[in-house]
């Protein structure tokens, strides 16, 4: 015990030397700041060094008091502890695998696949590398189950899953059982055309592989239909990408099955006008709730909706994009329902804490419409219409084409109406002044490629070039 202080000092110097040397390495690698490295090491390794210190003291005490028997005791305790830690680690690993794996096929399960997908889409967004996803659905699997029973059906799923793993491993792709007889493949650093080729080759290999009983199926072999979608710069979420792959897959089904299809925007259209009208009516019903709380927001949303209809036509948006754009414009501010009335109707400038509350309306809006699956595609417009092209917007500070295209368009439309409408804490601008503001902020707040087309639409609609600016009824 007389040497305890110098021992602790020596171990402390050892610890600091390690920390400084590792910190200098990371500093030279320019991957992290020295402070971050020190904080990380202190947080993650201090317990290890303290444990080493205490165990060493225990060893010294045992050696001093019991000699060789003390050394034997210490080694025995250390060995038993290491075995206990190993068993706990193996148990943890086993439980983790069970939580992440599908019990029948041994593939990754739906939840774990989505976790991996979130990580991969973040990597692709930061690095600019391509990312594709494929969804596969076994053709006529229900018929196979009806013919041979669920036990043989489960065996077919196992064999198909094993073949998927084998073929995907060569490309370092991640495979998961998406649900029932549906499977998903995550393909990092892969463009849609390469993903299509991989799945087409896989489809042919499945056709040529014999599985028990498949001769009774329509094609006389096992087959699947698949859809492929590639992440674009304005892809907002994994749900958006999965929905596109899903649409492509069902298009392949509709074309006769045993096909692979790449997602194309023309899959969706407004041919089913009754469905669009129904969605529009539902969205307007939700919006009418504003009448009892915030007439300004209700009228603002109606005007933004009309601008969006005209702007979408000006840009010749596809039918599907036009539907999403106009519906999103109609309910983009629905999250303001959650803001207290006294804040919404306040005259004068908002306090900092009130402004922070107002900014949360995009998140609250997302939560409101997330309860309706039919409005799921509107989430990017509701949540991201206050993002700026230069990355200084909210809620996430997305930049450039990482902001979905329709959200960038809505930002222009929404801002123009806000500038030209009387507001409690902001002077109203004339149309000419607002147009000038749009041009000044092009490339900063707004995507410059869409500013001029919007201005042209406004000038054509309100005869601004002839100096006949019409008054809007606010």
Overall description:
- The chain is an alpha+beta fold.
- It contains 18 helices and 5 strands.
- It has helices at residues 4-29, 34-66, 68-100, 110-127, 141-148, 150-169, 192-208, 238-254, 273-287, 295-314, 319-331, 341-344, 352-359, 361-369, 379-384, 405-420, 431-441, 448-462, and strands at residues 131-138, 174-179, 182-188, 224-230, 260-262.
- A 5-stranded mixed sheet has the order 2-3-1-4-5, sandwiched between helices.
- Helix 10 packs antiparallel against helix 11.
- It is flat, with a radius of gyration of 31 Å.
Short précis:
With 474 residues, the chain is of the alpha+beta class.
Structural class: alpha+beta
Quaternary structure = single chain
User: Percent helix among the residues?
Assistant: 55-70%
Quick check: average pLDDT? 83
Radius of gyration based on Cα positions:
31 Å
Order of helices and strands: HHHHEHHEEHEHEHHHHHHHHHH
Beta content comes to: 5-15%
What is the straight-line distance between the termini?
85 Å
Q: How many distinct beta strands? A: 5
User: How would the global form be characterised?
Assistant: flat
Largest sheet: 5 strands, mixed
> Ranges with pLDDT <50 over ≥5 residues?
269-274, 464-474
Strand order of the largest sheet: 2-3-1-4-5
Count of helices?
18
